[in-house]
Amino acid sequence: MIMTPRLSKVMLTAHITFSLGWFGTVAAFLVLSIAGITGNEELVKACYLGMDLIAWFVILPFCLCSLLTGLNQSLFTHWGLFKHWWIVVKLILTLLATVVLLVHMQPISYLAKIASDSPLTLSELTSLRIRLIADAGAAMLVLLATTTISVYKPWGKVQLVFALPKFQPTTKRPLGLYLLIGFIAVLVLFIVLHMMNGGMHH
What does the DSSP 8-state code read for residue 104? Predict the structure, then answer.
């Protein structure tokens, strides 16, 4: 089913808004994470509490909404989900960024709790604090890459290197939709199992 042009513009506007919001809040998170490792005790506490709030109530919602609106644009417009390489690559990068974000939500909350309970010295949890800086920087690079890909739309259409056997479809639903649902189910299972095992063990 193809969306009407008006609805497509509404969804495209939503996708761009959520994507830009995701990039902007990750930039703010990066600034706070740097300040959290170089500032005084009061500033460190404020930074990690702010990072926890930004991560849960801004970055995560914008990330998920960007992913969902992007999938909507692919599945219900002429672009398709697996017709163009730029869409496939952008989907993979976005899914990887989403998984990394979900995996690191628990350590962010852990640092915020530690900082609120007692002052953090410069030597405490240094590796984890530096890791959050690196992750935020990497996330910005990935988001910049997806934005660039969206603008230039490189690599052309997906061409199969082998001929698939012909078959008579028994449903009007596209095969790509079933593959996507299966991938999301595996992704959710991985995240649930990861969280049940204690996340990053912090």
Answer: T
